[in-house]
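Morning F.,

Quick status update on the modeling queue. The single chain you submitted on Monday has been processed. Sequence for confirmation:
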Amino acid sequence: MGMNKSYIPRKTFPQLPWGTLNNPEFIKTRNGGTLLTGGWWGIARKIHYTADLCMALSWGFITGFGSFVPYFYVTFFVCVLVHRVSRDMEKCAKKYGDDWKVYCKRVPYIFIPFVY
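Structure tokens below.
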């Protein structure tokens, strides 16, 4: 939104200093699109899924370890996200071609930096 000048800053709480990227880093693709390589998406390709998984795991942790039932959600969620990511990677490889390979080299991790 900042790149096409459509971003409208809002006076809402909280205004975090890392909430907006000024001069984001990106790869301009041959098909006219952009692949963001700055900010959170420069750390991992699906970093927003990592935050979702942490939230799901914390919901299990607050119930303790007396039963597996609270952890079913996070287990199911991991399976769903891993499957979704594999489909996303295939689609992006077809859509962006060689630009996707460059992007994967620049942002090598999918979920957790330095792990996966």
